[in-house]
Structure to design on (1664 residues):
C-alpha cells in the first residue's frame, strides 16, 4: 500500500507541476516530497522499533516476484534521505526563484527531484536484482537531469556527461556482479549473494566483493573513483549539490554496507581493503580540497574526505566481524552510520550556505570574496556551524561520529589484535591528520569568504532571503541535537548496527541488540559538551561584568603601514601556501605567472594557479587518450571507395578460409620442432 | 567438349587481364556469352524445353548481343576514354589472374565430392575472383560493371554445376543477371555520366567518415 | 579529588611563566621581575577596556573566551595519577585534543577576522603547525592504549606503572614528546620567539596583534594554563599511584617547576629555527611517537 | 492470402507509380496499409500453415512481420509530413511511395518465405526498391550513395547466390533436392560439412550488407544517411531484420551439424568487430544521421554476439533486434524533424534543440536513454540477458571488451546528443525556424513506450513467439 502511495504521489505531483504555473510548482514539489517523506519515514521508524516492513509484487513474466523489504539499515538511510531531501527542496524552491520564467526547465527539475526521492527509497528497499538496477539507473538519470539544470553552459553539460559516464561505469560493474549472482543462484533475489558466497571459493568471493566495491565505490566517490564529484557538484544548483553530496553518494555506502551484510566470511580481507581505500580517500580528498579556489569544488573534495572517514568506520567494523570483536563492530559501523547522517546534515548545510553566497555574489571563487559576515550574518552563522561540524569539533555532531571511530580504533589498539594493529595505527594517524587538514581548509574557507573585507567589488547590495534560512536552521538544530544528545541517536542507530553484530556464523549469538556499549561514554560526552558551553557562557558573562566598555573602534593595526587596502589581506592561496610547498609531489598546480620587468614594474603582474587532480590526469585522462588514439588508427575503414568495401567482404571470406589452414600449418611445424 | 569451352573461358579471362582497351573487354564479354551458350546447351540438353530455351535466349540474346552492344553505347554516350586505366601494370594483373586461376584449381582439388565436375568449379571460381580483381584494380566505373558481369558469368557456370537438377536455381541466376545488368548499367552509369564529367571512381569518394 | 587536580594546575599556571622569565633573566645575568609579575599583568589587562578594529565581527569578540574555555575544559580532563580528573571517560583524550582544536580554530578565524595580512600569516602558520603536531599525540595515546589495554587518561596512567623499567623509559620518551608539543603549542623557542619584534617571524604573537584589554588578558592566561596543563600531563607519567597525597602533590609541583625551568633553559640557549625548517622539526614529533609505538610493540613481544 | 497480398502489393505499387494525383496517392497507400495489416492478422491466425507453397509464417516470421506492420504506419505518416514540409514533385512522390510499398511487400514476403531461394529473390527486390528510395533527392551525393549501395548489394547478393549454389551441391550430394528450410534443417545431419561451411560463409557474408554487420556494413551507412529519414528508419529497422533473418535461418540449419561451433566463432568475430567499428566511428562522425546508422551497426553486432553465445543469448538476440527496430526507427523519424529545423545534419550546425522543438527534444533525450540501454529502457533487459549469456559462456575477456566499447559509445553518443539538445549553435539565424507541431512526435513516443513496455512487461504471447522462434536452435 505505501509503495503504491509513494509512486502515485510522484505521478500526481508531476501532473500538477505541469499544470500549475510559476511559483506554485515549487509548493507542489515540497508537498510531494513531504508526503513521500512522511509515508516512508513512518515505515522506517516502525522498522527501527523492531517491526520490519515487507511487501511483495508480481512484476511480469521473467521478473517474477519483487520483494520490498525495510530492515533497520534501510530504515536508517530512508530517514536521513527524507530529511535531507526535504530541506533540499525547501531551500531549492527559494534558490530557483530567479528561474521562474523557465517553466519547462522547472517542470523537469521538480519532477526529477520527486522521482529521485522515489528511486532512492526504492534502492534502499528493493530486494530484486533487476529492479534494483532499474531504480539505481533512474536515480542516476534524474540526478543527471538535475545537474544540467543550468544547461546552455558548455562546462555544465560537460560535467553532466562526465557524471553520466562514470555513473554508467559503476552501473556496468554492478550489472556484471549481478549477472554473476543471477547465474549462480538462478534467481533475481539479493539473497542470492549470500547463498552464493556461503559456498563460493574465498578468492571468488573476494573478487565479487571487489566488483561490488568498484560499482558502489564510484557512486560513493572513493579515491580513485572520485573524479566525477568535483565536476558535478559545482555544475549543479546548490540544493542539488547538497542532496547529491548528502544522500546520493551515500547510496554507494549503503550498497557496500548491504553487501557486507550479505557477505559470508573473508571479512578481515574486506575490512583491510575498505580501510586502505578509505585512508587514501580521506587524506587525498582533504588535501585536494585545501588547494581549491572554487568553494563548491572544495566542498566536493571534502565529501570525498568524509566518505573516507565513513569507509574507515566500515573497515574497522569489518575487521571487527572478522576477528569476532563485538566492540569493534559496534564502534566501526556505529561511526559509519552516524557519520553518514552527520555528513548528510552538515554538508547539505554548507552547500545551502554556498548557494546563498553564490546568489549574493555570483561567484564561487574564494579569492574574490570576503567580508560577507556584514552582508549575510545568518549565512555566516550557518557556514561557521557547518565548518565546525565538518572539522569534527565539539560541540557539534561531526565530533560524535569521529569520536566513535576513534574509540573504535583505540579499542582495536587496546584489544591488542594480532595482525591489524599497524593498519589501525595508520588509520588513527590518518584520521588525526585529516582532522588537522580539515581545520586548515575550513579556517581558510570561512575566514577568507566571510571575514575580513571584500576582496572584490560585489555586484549589488544584497539582502539575505529570510525564507531561504529555515532549511539551514532546521538542519543546524538537528546537528546541535546530535552534538548534545549523542546517546539518543546512538540508541536510534543501534538496531541498524545490531544487524552487523549478528551476521550469522560470525559471533556468538548473544542477544547483543539489547545491550548497547559506549552509551555511557556518549552520555559523558554530552555532559562535558554542556559543561563546555556553559563555561563559554560564564566567561562571556564575566567579560561583560569585569571588562570596562570598548575604548575605541579603529582600523586594523597595519604594523605601521598607513594605507592598507582590501587587496593587502591574506589570500586563500597564500594561507595554504606553506602546506602546498610541503606536499608539492602530491599536487598538480598549473601555474601561470607573469614576469616582473624592471626595478619599478609599472604594469600589474597577474599570477594565478589552477589546481588539477593528479590522479585524474594519470588514471583517467592518459588511458582515455591512449584508447582514443588506438581507435583512431582504424578510421580508414569507411574510406568511401566501393571497391574497398567489396574487398572487405572478399577479405573476410578468404581469411576465414585461410586462417584454419595457417593455424594447422603452424601447429604442425610446432609439433615438428618439438620432436626435434 | 564442355572442358574445351571452359578452358577457352578461362583463357578469355587471362586475355581480359592483359588487355587495355574497353572495346576488348566488351568483345571478350560477348565471346564469353557464346562459350556459356555452348556449355549451357551441352549441360542442360536433357532438361525440359522451355527452361532450356530460356537459358539459351539469355546466353545468346543477352550476354552475347544485348550487353556488349549496350556497353558500347554507354561508352560512346558518356564519351568514356578508351583506356581501362588500371591501378596496376598489365604484367602484374596477368600474374594475379594466373595465380587466381591456379588458386581456384587447388581449392577445387580440395573438394572430396564425386559428382561435382571440378572443371566447372575451377572456371566459376576463377571467373568470380578475376571479376572481383577487376573491380578492385580498375579506375573506371564502367570497368567495375564489366567486372561484375564477369562475376555473373562465373556464377552462371557454377549454377550449371548443379543446373541439371535445379532448373529453378538457374533461372533465378538468370533473373539476377537481367536485373543486375539492366539496372546497374542502364540507370546508373548514365546518370553518373550525366552528373560527372569523367567516369573516374575518385569522383565517387565523397561519402566517407 | 578531581577538583584538587584542577586547582593545582590552575595554581601552577600562576607561577609557571614567572619561573620561566626568572630563569631566562638569571641566565642573561639580570634580576628579572617577580614570580607573579605575569599574573599581575593579566589581571591588569582584564580590567582594561579594549580597542577593536572596524573590520572585525562578533567572531573576534567571542573567540578568546572560547579559546580560554577550551583550555579549561582540557584541563578538566587531565587526571591526577590514578585518580581521574573532573571528567573522565573512555577516549576522553580524544575530547581533550578536539576541544583544544576548537579553541585553536576560533583563534585562527579571529585572526583572519581582522583582515590584516600579518595576522593571516600567523594564522596560516598556526594552523599548519597544529595539524603537523596532531598525529603525534594520537599515535602516542594509541601506543599507550596498546600497552595498557585501556582507553582513558585515568586508566592509562593508572596502569602505566606496573611495568618494568622500560615502561619508565617509554614514559621519559613520552615526556620528551610532550615537552616538544608544549613548545609548539605555546609557540616558544625554538619554533617561535615570543620576544621578537619582527612580525614577519612571529607565529602566535602576530595572531593577537589586534587583541587588547580583556581578550588579550584571557589569551595570555590561556597560554599560561596550557603550560601548566602539559606540565601536569608530564607529571602524570611519574606519579606513582597508591602513594600518599602530599607525596604525589610534591612530585607534581617539583615536576611543574622543573618543566618551567627546562623551558627557560631551552629558551635562553637555543636560537629560533628558520621558518621553513619548522615543519621538519615538528614532524620529528611524529617519528618520535612512532618510535614509542615500536617500543611498545617490542614490550608486548609482537616484534621479535 | 499470400497470393492476394503479393498481387495486391504489385497492383498498388504500379498504381502508385503511375498515379500523379495526391488524393489517389493517399488512398492507395491507405489501402496498402490495410492490406499489410490484413496479412499480419491472417498470419497470426494461420501460424505455421504453408501458403502458396513457398510461404510458411513460423514464429520468427510472424514476430518480424508484426514489427514491420507496426513501423510501416508511422513510416508512411512521416513520409507525408516529409513531402508536406519539402517541395512536393508528383513524379518523385509517386516513385517514392511505389518504392516504399514494394520494399515493405518484399520484406514481408522475405520474412514469410520458407524457401532459401525465395528469400533470396525478395531480398534482391528490397535492394531494387531501396535504391529508388535512396536516390530520392536526386543530387550527386545521393547518386553516389545509391551507386555504392546498389553495387555492393549486387555483389553481396551474388555471394549469397553462390552460397545457395554451394548449399545445393551439398544437398545433391546428400541426395535430395528440397531447399525449404524445414527440410534442410531436418536433413542437416546428412550434409557434407565442406559444402555447408562454404555455403554458410558466403551466405553470411552476403547478408551482412543488409544486416549492417562487419565486413560489408559499409554501404548501408551511406544508404541510411542519404535516404529520406522515414526510409532511413525502415532501413535501420526492418531491412536490418531481413539480413538478420537470412543469417539466422542458415545458422539454424547449421546448428544441427558438427560445424555449429565454427559458425558460432564466425558470428563472434563479426559481431565483436561490428561493435568495435561502430565505436571507432562513433568517436569520429559529426553527422548525426550517420551516427545513428553506426549505432545500428553496434546493436546488430550485439545481437550477433547473443546469437553466437547461445543459451539465453538466443532469446536476448531476438528481443534485442525487435526492440532496437522500434527504438531506432523512432530516432530516425525524430532526426527528420531535427533536419527540418537546422537544414543540416552536422552537429556543429545543430544545437539548443530544446528551445525550437521541446516535444522532439524530449524524444531525442528519451531515445538516447533507450538506445544506450539504460533502464527503464527495454534494451537494458535484452542486453542484461545477452551479457549473462556471454558470462555464462565464459567469454569474460570478450564481455569486458564489449562493455568498454559500449561505454565509449555512450560517451560519444551523449556528447553529440547533448550538444544538439542544449548548446547554442554558432551562426544559426533563429528567425527562419520552422515550428513543428508536437503531434508529429507522438508516434515516436508510442514506439519508445513500446520498447519500455515490451522490455519490462512483455505479454505472454510475445515471449512465446520468441521462444518458438529460438526453438529452431538447439537448447
Amino acid at each position: 500500500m505505501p509503495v503504491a502511495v509513494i509512486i502515485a504521489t510522484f505521478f500526481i505531483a508531476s501532473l500538477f507541476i505541469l499544470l500549475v504555473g510559476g511559483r506554485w510548482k515549487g509548493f507542489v514539489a515540497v508537498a510531494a516530497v513531504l508526503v513521500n517523506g512522511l509515508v516512508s519515514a513512518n515505515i522506517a521508524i516502525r522498522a527501527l522499533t523492531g517491526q520490519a516492513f515487507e511487501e511483495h509484487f508480481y512484476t511480469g513474466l521473467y521478473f517474477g516476484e519483487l520483494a520490498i523489504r525495510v530492515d533497520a539499515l534501510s530504515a536508517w538511510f530512508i530517514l536521513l534521505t527524507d530529511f535531507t531531501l526535504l530541506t533540499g527542496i525547501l531551500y531549492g524552491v527559494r534558490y530557483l526563484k530567479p528561474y521562474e520564467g523557465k517553466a519547462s526547465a522547472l517542470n523537469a527539475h521538480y519532477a526529477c527531484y520527486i522521482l529521485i526521492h522515489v528511486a532512492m527509497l526504492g534502492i534502499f528497499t528493493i530486494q530484486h536484482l533487476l529492479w534494483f538496477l532499474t531504480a539505481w539507473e533512474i536515480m542516476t538519470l534524474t540526478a543527471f537531469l538535475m545537474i544540467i539544470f543550468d544547461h546552455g553552459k558548455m562546462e555544465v553539460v560537460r560535467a553532466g556527461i562526465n557524471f553520466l559516464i562514470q555513473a554508467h561505469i559503476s552501473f556496468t560493474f554492478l550489472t556484471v556482479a549481478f549477472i554473476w549472482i543471477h547465474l549462480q543462484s538462478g534467481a533475481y533475489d539479493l539473497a542470492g549473494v549470500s547463498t552464493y558466497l556461503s559456498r563460493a571459493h574465498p578468492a571468488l568471493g573476494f573478487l565479487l566483493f571487489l566488483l561490488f566495491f568498484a560499482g558502489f565505490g564510484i557512486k560513493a566517490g572513493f579515491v580513485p573513483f572520485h573524479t566525477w564529484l568535483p565536476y558535478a557538484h559545482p555544475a549543479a544548483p546548490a540544493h542539488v549539490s547538497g542532496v547529491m553530496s548528502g544522500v546520493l553518494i551515500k547510496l554507494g555506502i549503503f550498497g557496500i554496507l548491504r553487501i557486507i551484510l550479505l557477505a559470508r566470511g573473508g571479512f578481515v580481507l574486506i575490512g583491510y581493503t575498505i580501510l586502505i581505500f578509505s585512508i587514501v580517500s580521506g587524506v587525498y580528498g582533504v588535501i585536494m580540497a585545501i588547494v581549491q579556489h572554487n568553494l563548491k569544488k572544495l566542498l566536493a573534495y571534502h565529501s570525498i574526505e568524509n566518505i573516507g572517514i565513513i569507509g574507515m568506520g566500515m573497515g574497522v567494523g569489518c575487521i571487527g566481524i572478522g576477528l569476532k570483536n563485538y566492540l569493534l563492530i559496534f564502534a566501526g559501523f556505529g561511526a559509519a552510520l552516524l557519520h553518514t547522517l552527520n555528513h548528510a546534515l552538515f554538508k547539505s548545510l554548507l552547500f545551502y550556505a554556498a548557494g546563498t553566497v553564490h546568489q549574493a555574489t555570483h561567484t564561487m571563487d574564494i579569492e574574490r570574496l570576503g567580508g560577507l559576515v556584514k552582508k549575510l550574518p545568518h549565512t555566516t552563522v550557518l557556514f561557521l556551524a557547518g565548518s565546525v561540524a565538518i572539522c569534527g569539533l565539539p560541540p557539534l555532531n561531526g565530533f560524535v561520529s569521529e569520536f566513535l571511530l576513534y574509540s573504535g580504533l583505540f579499542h582495536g589498539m587496546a584489544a591488542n589484535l594480532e595482525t591489524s594493529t599497524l593498519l589501525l595505527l595508520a588509520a588513527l594517524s590518518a584520521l588525526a591528520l585529516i582532522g588537522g587538514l580539515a581545520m586548515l581548509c575550513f579556517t581558510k574557507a570561512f575566514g577568507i569568504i566571510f571575514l575580513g573585507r571584500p576582496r572584490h567589488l560585489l555586484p549589488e547590495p544584497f539582502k539575505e532571503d529570510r525564507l531561504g534560512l529555515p532549511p539551514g536552521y532546521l538542519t543546524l538544530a538537528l546537528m546541535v541535537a546530535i552534538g548534545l544528545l549523542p546517546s539518543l541517536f546512538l540508541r536510534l542507530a543501534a538496531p541498524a548496527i545490531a544487524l552487523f553484530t549478528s551476521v550469522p556464523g560470525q559471533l556468538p549469538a548473544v542477544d547483543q541488540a539489547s545491550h548497547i556499549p559506549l552509551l555511557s561514554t556518549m552520555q559523558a560526552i554530552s555532559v562535558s559538551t554542556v559543561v563546555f558551553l556553559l563555561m563559554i557562557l560564564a566567561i562571556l558573562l564575566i567579560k561583560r561584568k569585569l571588562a570596562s566598555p570598548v575604548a575605541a573602534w579603529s582600523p586594523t593595526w597595519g604594523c605601521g603601514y598607513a594605507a592598507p587596502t582590501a587587496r593587502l589581506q591574506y589570500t586563500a592561496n597564500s594561507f595554504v601556501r606553506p602546506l602546498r610547498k610541503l606536499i608539492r609531489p602530491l599536487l598538480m598546480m598549473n601555474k601561470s605567472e607573469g614576469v616582473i620587468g624592471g626595478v619599478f614594474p609599472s604594469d600589474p603582474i597577474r599570477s594565478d594557479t589552477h589546481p588539477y587532480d593528479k590522479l585524474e590526469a594519470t588514471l583517467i585522462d592518459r588511458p582515455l587518450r591512449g584508447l582514443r588514439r588506438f581507435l583512431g588508427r582504424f578510421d580508414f575503414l569507411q574510406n568511401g571507395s566501393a571497391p574497398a568495401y567489396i574487398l572487405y567482404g572478399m577479405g573476410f571470406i578468404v581469411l576465414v578460409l585461410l586462417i584454419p589452414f595457417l593455424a594447422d600449418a603452424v601447429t604442425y611445424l610446432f609439433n615438428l620442432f618439438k620432436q626435434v | 567438349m564442355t572442358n574445351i569451352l571452359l578452358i577457352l573461358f578461362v583463357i578469355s579471362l587471362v586475355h581480359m587481364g592483359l588487355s587495355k582497351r574497353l572495346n576488348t573487354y566488351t568483345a571478350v564479354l560477348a565471346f564469353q556469352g557464346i562459350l556459356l551458350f555452348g556449355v549451357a546447351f551441352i549441360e542442360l540438353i536433357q532438361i525440359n524445353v522451355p527452361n532450356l530455351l530460356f537459358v539459351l535466349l539469355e546466353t545468346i540474346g543477352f550476354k552475347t548481343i544485348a550487353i556488349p552492344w549496350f556497353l558500347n553505347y554507354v561508352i560512346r554516350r558518356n564519351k568514356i576514354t578508351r583506356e581501362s586505366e588500371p591501378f596496376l601494370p598489365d604484367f602484374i594483373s596477368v600474374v594475379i589472374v594466373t595465380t587466381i586461376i591456379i588458386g581456384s584449381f587447388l581449392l577445387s582439388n580440395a573438394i572430396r565430392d564425386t559428382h561435382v565436375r571440378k572443371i566447372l568449379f575451377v572456371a566459376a571460381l576463377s571467373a568470380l575472383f578475376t571479376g572481383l580483381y577487376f573491380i578492385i584494380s580498375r579506375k573506371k566505373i564502367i570497368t567495375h560493371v564489366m567486372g561484375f558481369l564477369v562475376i555473373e558469368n562465373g556464377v552462371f557456370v557454377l549454377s550449371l554445376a548443379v543446373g541439371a537438377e535445379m532448373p529453378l536455381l538457374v533461372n533465378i541466376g538468370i533473373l539476377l543477371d537481367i536485373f543486375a545488368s539492366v539496372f546497374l548499367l542502364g540507370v546508373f552509369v548514365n546518370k553518373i555520366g550525366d552528373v560527372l564529367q569523367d567516369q573516374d571512381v575518385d569522383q565517387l569518394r565523397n561519402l566517407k567518415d | 579529588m578531581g577538583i584538587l587536580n584542577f586547582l593545582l594546575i590552575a595554581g601552577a599556571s600562576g607561577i609557571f611563566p614567572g619561573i620561566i622569565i626568572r630563569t631566562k633573566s638569571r641566565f642573561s645575568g639580570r634580576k628579572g621581575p617577580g614570580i607573579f609579575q605575569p599574573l599581575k599583568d593579566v589581571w591588569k589587562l582584564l580590567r582594561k577596556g579594549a580597542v577593536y578594529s572596524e573590520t572585525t565581527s562578533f567572531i573576534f569578540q567571542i573567540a578568546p573566551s572560547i579559546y580560554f574555555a577550551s583550555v579549561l575544559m582540557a584541563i578538566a580532563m587531565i587526571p591526577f595519577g590514578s585518580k581521574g580528573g573532573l571528567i573522565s571517560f573512555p577516549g576522553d583524550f580524544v575530547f581533550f585534543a578536539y576541544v583544544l582544536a576548537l579553541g585553536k580554530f576560533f583563534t585562527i578565524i579571529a585572526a583572519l577576522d581582522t583582515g590584516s595580512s600579518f595576522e593571516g600569516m600567523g594564522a596560516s602558520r598556526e594552523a599548519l603547525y597544529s595539524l603537523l603536531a596532531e598525529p603525534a599525540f594520537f599515535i602516542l595515546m594509541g601506543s599507550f592504549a596498546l600497552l595498557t589495554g585501556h582507553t582513558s587518561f585515568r586508566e592509562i596512567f593508572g596502569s602505566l606503572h606496573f611495568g618494568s623499567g622500560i615502561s619508565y623509559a617509554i614514559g621519559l620518551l613520552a615526556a620528551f614528546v610532550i615537552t616538544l608539543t608544549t613548545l609548539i603549542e605555546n609557540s616558544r623557542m625554538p619554533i617561535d620567539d615570543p620576544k621578537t619584534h619582527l612580525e614577519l617571524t612571529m607565529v602566535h604573537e602576530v595572531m593577537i596583534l589586534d587583541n587588547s584589554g580583556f581578550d588579550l588578558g584571557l589569551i595570555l592566561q590561556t597560554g599560561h594554563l596550557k603550560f601548566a596543563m602539559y606540565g601536569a600531563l608530564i607529571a602524570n607519567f611519574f606519579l606513582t599511584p597508591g602513594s600518599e597525597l602530599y607525596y604525589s602533590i610534591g612530585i607534581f609541583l617539583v615536576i611543574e617547576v622543573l618543566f618551567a625551568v627546562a623551558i627557560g633553559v631551552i629558551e635562553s640557549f637555543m636560537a629560533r629555527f628558520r621558518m621553513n625548517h619548522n615543519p621538519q622539526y615538528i614532524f620529528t614529533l611524529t617519528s618520535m611517537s612512532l618510535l614509542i609505538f615500536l617500543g611498545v610493540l617490542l614490550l608486548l613481544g609482537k616484534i621479535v | 492470402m499470400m497470393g492476394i497480398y503479393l498481387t495486391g502489393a504489385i497492383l498498388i505499387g504500379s498504381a502508385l507509380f503511375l498515379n500523379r494525383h495526391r488524393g489517389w496517392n493517399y488512398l492507395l497507400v491507405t489501402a496498402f496499409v490495410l492490406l499489410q495489416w490484413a496479412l499480419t492478422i491472417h498470419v497470426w491466425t494461420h501460424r505455421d500453415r504453408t501458403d502458396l507453397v513457398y510461404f510458411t509464417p513460423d514464429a520468427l516470421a510472424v514476430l518480424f512481420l508484426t514489427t514491420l506492420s507496426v513501423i510501416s504506419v508511422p513510416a508512411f505518416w512521416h513520409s507525408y509530413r516529409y513531402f508536406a514540409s519539402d517541395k512536393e514533385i508528383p513524379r518523385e512522390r509517386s516513385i517514392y511511395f511505389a518504392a516504399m510499398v514494394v520494399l515493405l511487400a518484399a520484406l514481408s514476403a522475405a520474412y514469410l518465405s520458407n524457401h532459401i531461394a525465395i528469400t533470396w529473390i525478395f531480398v534482391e527486390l528490397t535492394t531494387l526498391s531501396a535504391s529508388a528510395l535512396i536516390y530520392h533527392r536526386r543530387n550527386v551525393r545521393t547518386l553516389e550513395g545509391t551507386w555504392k549501395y546498389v553495387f555492393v548489394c549486387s555483389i553481396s547478393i551474388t555471394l549469397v547466390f553462390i552460397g545457395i549454389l554451394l548449399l545445393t551441391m551439398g544437398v545433391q550430394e546428400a541426395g535430395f533436392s528440397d531447399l525449404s528450410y524445414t527440410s534442410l534443417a531436418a536433413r542437416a545431419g546428412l550434409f557434407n560439412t565442406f559444402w555447408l561451411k562454404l555455403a554458410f560463409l558466403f551466405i553470411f557474408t552476403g547478408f551482412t550488407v543488409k544486416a549492417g554487420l562487419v565486413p560489408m556494413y559499409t554501404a548501408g551507412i551511406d544508404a541510411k544517411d542519404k535516404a529520406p529519414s522515414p526510409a532511413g528508419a525502415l532501413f535501420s529497422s526492418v531491412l536490418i531484420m531481413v539480413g538478420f533473418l537470412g543469417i539466422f535461418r542458415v545458422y539454424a540449419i547449421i546448428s544441427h551439424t558438427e560445424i555449429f561451433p565454427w559458425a558460432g566463432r564466425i558470428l563472434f568475430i563479426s559481431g565483436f568487430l561490428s561493435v568495435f567499428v561502430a565505436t571507432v566511428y562513433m568517436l569520429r562522425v559529426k553527422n548525426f544521421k550517420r551516427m545513428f546508422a553506426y549505432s545500428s551497426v553496434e546493436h546488430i553486432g550485439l545481437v550477433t554476439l547473443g546469437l553466437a553465445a547461445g543459451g539465453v543469448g538466443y532469446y536476448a538476440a531476438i528481443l534485442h533486434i525487435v526492440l532496437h527496430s522500434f527504438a531506432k526507427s523512432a530516432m530516425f523519424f525524430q532526426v527528420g524533424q531535427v533536419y527540418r529545423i537546422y537544414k543540416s545534419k552536422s552537429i556543429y550546425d545543430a544545437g539548443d534543440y530544446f528551445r525550437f522543438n521541446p516535444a522532439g527534444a524530449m524524444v531525442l533525450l528519451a531515445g538516447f536513454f533507450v538506445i544506450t540501454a539504460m533502464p527503464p529502457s527495454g534494451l537494458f533487459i535484452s542486453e542484461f540477458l545477452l551479457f549473462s549469456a556471454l558470462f555464462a559462456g565464459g567469454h569474460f575477456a570478450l564481455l569486458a571488451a564489449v562493455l568498454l566499447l559500449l561505454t565509449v559509445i555512450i560517451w560519444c553518443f551523449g556528447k553529440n546528443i547533448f550538444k544538439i539538445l542544449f548548446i547554442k549553435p554558432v551562426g544559426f539565424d533563429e528567425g527562419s525556424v520552422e515550428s513543428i507541431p508536437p503531434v508529429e512526435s507522438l508516434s515516436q513516443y508510442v514506439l519508445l513506450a513500446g520498447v519500455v513496455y515490451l522490455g519490462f512487461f512483455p505479454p505472454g504471447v510475445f515471449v512465446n513467439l520468441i521462444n518458438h522462434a529460438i526453438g529452431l536452435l538447439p537448447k
Notes: Chain D has a mean pLDDT of 93. Chain D is about 80% helix and 0% strand. The radius of gyration of chain D is 21 Å. Chain D has two domains: 1-258, 260-475.
